[in-house]
Amino acid sequence: MKPKESKSGKKKTFRVALLGTKFMGKAHSQAYRNVNMYFPDAPKVEQAVLCGRNPQETEQAREAFGWAEASTDWRAAIARDDIDIVDVATPGSMHCEMAVAAAEAGKHVVCEKPLANTLPEAKRMLAAVERAGVKHFLMHNYRRVPAVALAKRMIDDGRIGKIYHFRGRYLQDWALSPDLELVWRFDAKQSGSGALGDLGAHTLDLARYLCGEVSELAATTETFIEQRPAAAGSKEKVPVTVDDAVAMCLRFENGAIGTLEASRFGAGRKNHNTFEINGSKGSLIFDLENLNNLKYYSVDDRDDAQGFREIIACSLGKHPYADNWWFDGHLLGYEHSFTHSIYDMLTALAEGRGTHPDFVDGVRNQQILDAAAQASKDRRWVEVG
Ligand code: SOE
After folding, report:
1. Nearest CA to ligand 1 atom 4
2. Which of 3, 93, 264, 338 could form a disulfide with 175 if both were Cys (CB 3.0 to 4.6 A apart)?
3. Entry pTM
4. How far is the CA of 317 from the centre of ligand 1 (A)?
5. For the structural domain made of 13-142, what CATH number should be given?
6. Residue range 124-144: average pLDDT?
């Protein structure tokens, strides 16, 4: 069945195959389910097929997440003529095989972060989508939190002037207990790296998005708990093969300097993805744990009124994406950043173009992640790329 097209030749309906039924499968599903309700100008989405490994779990997820069909055969799903977009929302070890197969089947590809577990895999994925001539989108959802999109707009408008510093931290604390078993995020074969590629990838993407390209870096990583139970409650211990935390010093091509930390041992920090950017005319501060707000300091404020002001970035007619939700101050959440991402991706596809971040951004990010791993191993500064 050929996808429906409007008279202008712009595709009006996209049929999606989603690979992955866990945390990211749920986050992406809610975006596909809500995008047409809240963004009436978006192309129509049909949630065609949800793919998972376990038949019962996949069927349960299909029903709960609103998909027409469930399948445990992702290859068959992406080969279907009636599928336009393949969305890869699985652990990083499967991204390359799935995205390359989707590209070779002529499908547009959405992929969760980090693009891949290694730089060679990331480059293979980019080569495949470019060879196939399909569009490609990397799901770094935090770019599309309204307060972050507002920060980008303010920086581009010169509101904080020339950037001197980017200071990013992404802290969680779910790994603190030594009794936590070796879940896949502690296994380098499945996750590629630990906090570096899981959390650091987000902060690096925001650093590039807001401040520009990273030219060189120094980094150190640490694994605080080196052995974990092989399974929940097991007495058998197995080695952790990834980092628990990373700290970096960054130099940017535009002359700015920065620091970046990512850790799963930030006791009390649940999803503390935060940045502070200092420029010649002011500063911006964002904290995902207070995600509707953006703090802004301007040197142009009158002397007796200088100080950080806190903007609630969800006002109609003023802030990115706000017109599609509620009245001023009714606030948004983590999941809205996925809906915004899918809206922008679909709109770009309907207009025959790509949007960022894409697989080129993903390769660039992976180059920085690789440089950080090298810098930590060799205890030296490493040029990126
Ligand atoms: C776990 O660290 C995790 O789910 C990340 O993998 C996501 O990318 C982040 O958005 C939330 O935390």
Report:
1. 23
2. 264
3. 0.96
4. 31
5. 3.40.50.720
6. 98
